[in-house]
Amino acid sequence: MFAVTRRRFALYDLAGVLLWAGTWLTLGHFFSDAIVSIAARATALGRMLGLVIATALVGYLLVKYGRRHLFLRTLRTARVSPEALKRTYLFETRATSSSSLESNSFKSGD
């Protein structure tokens, strides 16, 4: 599409990989003390942190399940039977055709 040679593409790809990996390695190096501190606190909290995370996850899943259940229930109750649709369609068709006849009769009377 852009006519880039294989060698140039390989150089761009290598530069991108080095930039991507170098960025994360550098950030990891500078923030390694903070990462160790966070891991130590998480270990100290242990079960309590796991319980909080598990409770939050279960609560989230229950809310999602409840919303989905309510949404599906509204979809079930919002259905229209074929007979009701047929009656509505016939009523609208008759109303439209009678109003168009009335408008034509007024135009021809002028």
Spell out the key features of this protein.
0% strand, 110 residues, 4 helices, mainly alpha
Brief sketch in words of this structure:
The protein is mostly helical and about 110 residues long. It is about 90% helix and about 0% strand. The protein is built from four helices and no strands.
Give an overview of the whole structure.
The protein has 110 residues and is an all-alpha fold. The protein contains 4 helices and no strands. The protein has helices spanning 6-30, 32-45, 47-77, 82-108. The model has no long low-confidence stretch (mean pLDDT 83).
- How many strand units? 0
Q: What global shape is seen? A: flat
Going by helix content, strand content and strand pairing, the class is: mainly alpha
Radius of gyration: 34 Å
SSE sequence, one letter per element: HHHH
Classify the beta-strand content into a percent band. under 5%
Q: Helical percent range?
A: over 70%
User: Largest sheet, described in full?
Assistant: none
Topology:
Layout: H1 6-30, H2 32-45, H3 47-77, H4 82-108
